[in-house]
């Protein structure tokens, strides 16, 4: 047995590995490019694990976060934006390459697990973790474990529709998933940037300062964003009633969200005393890879 846990985060362009000691201190961190092919990925991960084992403990556990899900029935990856991973038995192949068991989980679930274990929502029983980045993901942690669900899609609120729609919000924008009005079309980073500075703008950096300085477009975009995120969070509270909602991804750096969004939530949640905490993540960009390590609790 080992007191060390290795976490690996597989992104579209990079692979990151960390080693956490028994106290959750990061004792090793290394980032390499994602080779972009399936066989290349398997051998790159093996190299990273061998190296980390040599530098920590050869029995350190391995957890992996992927931008998709491993279907519990078919064992194949699905819904990955690195599309060449889809349809592959990644968890089984990786176990064969490494020669010991690994745990593989959706990256938004890893983010939520990290924040629920020793992050912003440490000690809370039920935690909803949300990534508001270039896309939108979510994960539900119950008593320290990711809630997977029958189809391994629990927490995927990005492709649920905007709730409590007002008449002036029609027509709903089309989403790549085939439906219209998905939350991701309103709440991902590029959607906010587009509402502020127009199509093609991908950054929301500076929007708060611009709004404070009187930029009307920034104020309007932020007002709408706060209102819609508040409605989306209220829907989550009505269904799973978490102790805390933790925000991650680039948009989570907007400080105004933590003051303003809970006020909107109170108007929609079906209880007169909504006390759900809305928290900024503690571990930032490291949360996904730390959560992968915590898959071995
Ligand atoms: Zn959609």
From TrEMBL:
It holds the Pfam family ROK. InterPro entries: ATPase_NBD, ROK, ROK_cs. GO terms for molecular function: hexokinase activity. PROSITE patterns: ROK. Gene3D superfamilies: 3.30.420.40. Keywords: Kinase, Transferase. This is Fructokinase.
């Amino acid at each position: 047995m080992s007191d060390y846990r290795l976490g690996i985060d597989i992104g579209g362009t990079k692979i990151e590995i960390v080693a956490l000691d028994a106290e959750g201190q990061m004792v090793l961190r290394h980032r390499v490019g994602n080779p972009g092919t399936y066989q290349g990925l398997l051998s790159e991960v093996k190299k990273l694990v061998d190296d980390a084992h040599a530098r920590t403990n050869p029995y350190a556990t391995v957890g992996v976060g992927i931008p998709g899900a491993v279907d519990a029935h078919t064992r194949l990856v699905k819904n990955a934006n690195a599309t060449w991973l889809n349809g592959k038995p990644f968890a089984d192949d990786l176990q064969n390459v490494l020669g010991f068991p690994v745990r593989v989980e959706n990256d938004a679930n890893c983010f939520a697990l990290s924040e629920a274990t020793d992050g912003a929502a440490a000690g809370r029983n039920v935690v909803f973790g949300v990534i508001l980045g270039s896309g939108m993901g979510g994960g539900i942690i119950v008593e320290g474990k990711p809630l997977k669900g029958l189809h391994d899609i629990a927490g995927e609120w990005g492709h649920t529709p905007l709730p409590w729609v007002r008449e002036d919000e029609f027509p709903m924008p089309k989403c790549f998933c085939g439906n219209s009005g998905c939350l991701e079309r309103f709440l991902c980073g590029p959607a906010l940037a587009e509402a502020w500075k127009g199509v093609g703008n991908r950054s929301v950096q500076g929007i708060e300062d611009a709004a404070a300085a009187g930029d009307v477009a920034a104020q309007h975009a932020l007002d709408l964003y706060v209102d819609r995120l508040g409605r989306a969070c209220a829907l989550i509270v009505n269904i799973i009633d978490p102790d805390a909602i933790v925000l991650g991804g680039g948009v989570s750096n907007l400080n105004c969200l933590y003051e303003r969004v809970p006020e909107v939530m109170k108007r929609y949640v079906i209880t007169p005393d909504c006390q759900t905490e809305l928290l900024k993540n503690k571990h930032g960009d490291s949360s996904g890879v730390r959560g992968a390590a915590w898959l071995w609790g």
